[in-house]
Amino acid sequence: MKYLGLRFDPIDMDGACAILRSRTGDDAYAYMVTPNVDHVVRLAELPTTAIEWNAYRQADWCLCDSRVLSLFAAADGVPLPVVPGSDLTAHLFGSILSAGDRLCIIGGHAGDSARLIERWPGLDIVQYVPPMGLRHDAEAREQAARFAATSGARFILLAVGSPQQELIATAIGRQPDARGTALCIGASLDFLVGRERRAPRWMRRMALEWLHRLWVNPRRMWRRYLPAGPRMLRLRWRYRHGLRRRS
To answer: pLDDT of 6-16, one tens digit each?
Structure first.
């Protein structure tokens, strides 16, 4: 199904977990993206020929990360199951990865791999922390992609923010040794290693996780969440206006 210019797969959390559970480190390379409102409004301001658009189009699975986005879509007659990336990452560690599995992390903070191994001692985790400025540094993205492609990992977790992580996901696919599955996970590692706390479950169910993150970290999050609201409303208005013109 398509909404606001993006193709979404009608896959819920159980379906997403089933896909990941079936994937091995020897499988042909594939990657999963989980766009939210911030991703969608940013893409809408770019020409459709931009490399960022291409990164989402080439994804093997595109799942809706945002309950807010899902509510807008439902109001427009488009059913979008919600698969929050942080929840999916938690399921990956909690019920999908097995002892001996190799995991490659691109991004996060130095030492995150050691913290994760403390919690899941049976895992084999390698990590590469690329430099800042990845969005405008194609060579740095290629270096990260080469590290991931040669890691031999069953899963590659791209934790460098959007759109950098989606651009790296496509770059990995160009590497001849690429295997396994990459997931664009944003800040999910922050929750797993205890740097940040998730919103209470009731806030998540009511599509208010964004408000919790804004309250906890206003200096960093206001630029993401506060401008995104009006931009999303304008984008949706154009979408609905376009539907009326075509009908």
So the answer is: 999 999 999 99
